[in-house]
Design a protein that fits this description.
Chain lengths: 146, 382, 382, 146
């Protein structure tokens, strides 16, 4: 799918959420925010800390590897503008606990029956091609090989 | 009942389901029934609250003007799935302030058919990535609970079995069909481990209560039920990962909204869970009821599964839960659902619940919980 | 100030206008300012009300969680153009009930650009037949008033002239430009006799107040302003033909919502219009201010036109109205507009309104009126 | 415009609001509701009386002639699905007081400068053709000749 995407057409799936090298679909990192006051970490570039309300925030990049905290399997096509495989294939989503002290909700790549709580997962890019519009640099987690 | 007490004098309900009716039709039906039961006219009402989430602006005025000319305050109140509780609380506070003597709280909803438009609550990127299915959030809670406490799919199914069975006796429920454990466990998973016969559906409905002072209730006669507590809270930071959460803290563990709100309600009422004879709670899915029983203090943390399995939450059990059939069988017309629970509890405390009556019920609790960690708990006493 | 009094201790406002900002940005700005002025932290707030008409469900929780973790009740309140008044009233009642000591009321709106989608309030047939223009309803009221009382287009224009002139000194207004009478009377009619420079535009904005008891205010210091009254009503049958009316009674003539609501407020406050030093009222259009002045009792019925013409409603006049520039210059972010008026009155009563200050103002009144005959009146005293 | 409308395609602009002979575009009457309890008359077929709340209601037909109580001129094309002339022409609307004791909001046919409060007006059909859909039997009021 990466080949279909000319340079400049690969947009982050959301501003302030993911980053990567412009022309390199395989490069992805999750952005986070760390509160200068209470130290709490949140997902994405946020202006305020939802724990203590402080607006003294430092942007960080979240660790790419973590452990599965819980998960489920989506058995029916989500409503609205879901950009995953068509025809639909059931897929897992889960909360992945990162060493930054946050659990991130994300799709999980791979066999829906292959997951268990505690398994090691690693961030990987997930390029989502919209029908007539841009491709998005999204993300999911996959089992750490070996 | 002390003079200072605030009571429910009349209740009304339009059955929950799917109807070719307008919100006005649904709402007027419930409001008239509540006024009739209270022995009051619309002109006796000094303030009205319309609780709704999906209906458009000024629904309260539009629906209630059908009861006739009036120039009271009519306000729309919204707090997601807890809207009914938030509205009831405003009525209680208005009466306690002394400015209002008698108020009407009316919950009405007419939900869109099928899956809700996810853009209403989810960010675009969540929709694009397939993270916009409400049941997925519930299911992840269930999976974690199973992992931590050994809760089983059978225990979860047992909750659905009980609630479907209870619904057979409730003429206001959308589904009134009992299922066997085998049927429930054989129904399709929606988001593992939660199955089709274990989740609730959005639908249409209305419920209403007339609230007044104990003093006025004594003058009027009738069968008042005291509002011992009515609490509403929104969850603390990261204490809840219901939709549309995108993450949660792994370092800060605040108590969940059900625990916080029920503690406030127990304090207001001067009682604890052991003093309460019957419960209506937010079984958006069957697992959810297990977790809520724990957070309400009906059992220890992690004991919700065994409690369901051993039948303690059945009618006739130690602490009956969802005698009405719960949202799993009634459906969830969001703005009306808490008031629907209150209607059921009032009926139980009056001893008028027929085949689903909890014998000798004197105190009951209604609980809702939903988007954004909105939670409401109401405690009523005969 | 008696202990039992309820006061505004802090106010905050995000200027009204059109901004490339989210509702969260607007709301947090106003809420922080109000907390700061009150000398309080977010954790001191025991209940919060978010007033809005166009923002989606659970806006209150979504906006206010940016102030930090909290597990209080946060409720969205809607009563059309009177939403801010309805929300303020809930806060007052909650505090008077004794259950809450300190509350935040935050109004936020981000309006759709251009004409509103008429299907939000009008029936399909009204849209098809061209009956779905809000200003048409205002204009028909003006035309009838001109017929009955001899009100002139110049008198109406004079209101717009005054409000535009006042706005020059208000940094929170969207338009801050004075116009000559000639310019106003030469501006295009939108719906005769109402012209482009005589109507308000929907826009974005936020306003907030911190409400507490006089006792707590004394402990904290600061500059409390007492809430002498806060009333909200929906118009009686046929007493108002604001949009989206399709007809009105020719046989029953009930008093209009402004008269009814202001009477309730005067009773609560134990005062009358003569005791009030300054007014902020709903000038959706310039004529509307004339009619409201009459219904508030600032002059006899039919005398609103001459009163405006003779300058009595100017700053320095007998009863100054819309010192802020009114909605005509500020714009109307519906859910925020009444709280914006309250912010202005508080500033006047504190003597902090600079070039638009009404000298020696001790008592002030804020008034909103809109769809469905929703009306709110708040009376404040230094 | 009537000729373009085959039989069966002429719908009332709203159910319970107007009536007429099916195949006769020129026939129109306004429906109303009279409360059996308080006698108040309202526009259209209503289930309840907004004055007294009674649901004992008798359907009536409103008088076709009345007096203009107030009016305005719409100078810009109304937003949404307005079905009047295209290109837009300014038109008047007003409240017409009928002897039934009700003032009905309606478009007014004719020169926008020709109206004054108190003038006599009479109901007339106004057929509105939607672009790709049905024609509607709507209504307006016009000056009584002579
Ligand atoms: Zn922090
Ligand atoms: Zn009647």
């Amino acid at each position: 799918m990466g080949d279909e995407t000319a340079a400049g057409e690969l947009l982050p799936v959301n501003e302030g959420l993911v980053t990567g090298i412009d022309n390199e679909p395989r490069d992805v990192q999750l952005l986070g925010s760390k509160c200068d006051r209470c130290g709490e970490v949140s997902l994405g570039a946020n202006a305020v800390c939802l724990n203590c309300g402080s607006d003294r925030i430092t942007g960080i990049r979240l660790a790419p590897e973590g452990e599965l905290w819980t998960y489920t399997v989506i058995r029916h096509r989500p409503p609205g503008g879901y950009l995953g495989p068509d025809p639909f294939e059931p897929f897992a989503i889960g909360l992945v606990e990162l060493p930054d002290g946050i659990r991130v909700m994300a799709p999980l790549a791979g066999d829906v029956d292959s997951f268990e709580i505690g398994c090691r997962l690693r961030l990987e890019p997930w390029i989502l091609q919209s029908r007539d519009g841009p491709a998005y640099r999204a993300f999911r987690f996959a089992a750490v090989a070996g | 009942m002390p003079d200072s007490d605030i009571v429910i004098l009349g209740t009304g309900i339009h059955p929950f389901g799917r109807f070719d009716k307008t919100p006005e039709d649904l709402g007027v039906h419930a409001a008239r029934q509540a006024l009739g039961e209270a022995g009051l006219e619309w002109s006796d009402i000094q303030a009205a609250y319309l609780t709704r989430m999906y209906l458009p602006a000024t629904s309260g005025a539009r629906i209630l003007r059908r009861l006739g000319s009036s120039d009271i305050s009519i306000v729309d109140i919204e707090a997601a799935c807890a809207s009914g509780g938030a509205g009831l609380r405003q009525a209680v506070l208005a009466i306690r302030s002394g400015e209002v003597d008698t108020a009407l709280v009316l919950g009405v909803e007419k939900m869109p058919r099928g899956f809700m438009d996810p853009s209403m609550i989810y960010a675009d990127w969540q929709v694009r990535m397939g993270l916009s299915m409400n049941p997925a959030y519930w299911s992840m809670r269930a999976r974690r609970h199973m992992h931590e406490f050994g809760t089983t799919e059978e225990q979860i199914a047992r909750v659905a079995w009980k609630n479907h069975r209870n619904s057979v006796e409730n003429p206001n429920a959308m589904y009134r069909k009992a299922f066997t454990m085998e049927q429930i466990l054989a129904s399709k998973p929606v988001c593992d481990p939660i199955r089709l016969l274990e989740i609730c559906a959005p639908n249409d409905g209305a419920a209403a209560v007339v609230v007044t002072t104990a003093r006025r209730a004594r003058q009027l006669g009738g069968e008042p039920v005291a509002i011992e507590a009515c609490a509403h809270t929104v969850a603390r930071y990261s204490a809840d990962f219901r939709c549309p959460a995108d993450s949660m803290s792994a370092t800060i563990s605040n108590p969940g909204p059900t625990r916080v709100t029920s503690q406030k309600a127990y304090e207001q009422a001067g009682c604890g869970p052991d003093d309460i004879d019957c419960f209506e709670v937010q079984d958006t899915d069957a697992f959810c009821e297990i977790e809520i029983c724990e957070q309400l203090g009906l059992c220890e943390r992690g004991e919700g599964g065994p409690m369901a399995e051993e039948g303690h939450t059945e009618i006739g059990g130690r602490c009956p839960v969802n005698m009405s059939g719960g949202l799993i069988s009634k459906g969830e017309p969001v703005g009306a659902s808490h008031l629907g629970q209150v209607v059921e509890i009032v009926s139980q405390l009056r001893g008028r619940s027929g085949a689903r009556q909890v014998e000798g019920a004197r105190v009951g609790l209604a609980h809702v919980l939903g988007a954004g960690g909105n939670c409401a708990v109401t405690i009523l006493a005969a």
